[in-house]
Amino acid sequence: MIRLTVMTAALLAALAAPAQAKDAEGPGGVPVFPPYQVRTAQQAGDRLATGRDAKAAFEHACGYCHLPGGMGSNLLTKQMLMMKRPPSDGVLTNRKDLSAAYVKAVVRNGKGAMPPKGGATLSDDEIKGVVDYVLGKVK
Predict the structure, then answer these.
(1) pTM exceeding 0.85
(2) Which of 1, 71, 115, 117 could pair covalently with 121 via S-S, beta carbons 3.0-4.6 A apart?
(3) Does residue 69 lie within any of the structural domains?
(4) Helical H runs in 51-123?
(5) Is the confidence at residue 80, as pLDDT, over 70?
(6) What domain range is 125 assigned to?
């Protein structure tokens, strides 16, 4: 009898769960994801034009992994902890030990699981902007 009561309570709880989950859905029933799991929109206008927003280029092409909570930041944070460095160094924009040449080479060619972003994904001017943004030269 106790088993039947517990099973009935579990079934009722499971049936009530979808009604609570509705609040976390966006238009068309699509779940609302945290911002770091969603790729930001590409900037409007000509990608090859100079002087585009470096932060927006970083957030669009790199942010879904390298903003706080992204897979790349999580892996880098683990590496920082193993090297006895502060976990905040796992977020690229907090790092002070990166050179412009290194960041440019990694963005253009990729590294490990990170795919290359040069060429079709980011123009040369956008790569320069991303490098400047990561190194703190542009806000």
Answers:
(1) no
(2) 117
(3) yes
(4) 54-61, 63-66, 71-82, 100-109
(5) yes
(6) 35-40+49-139
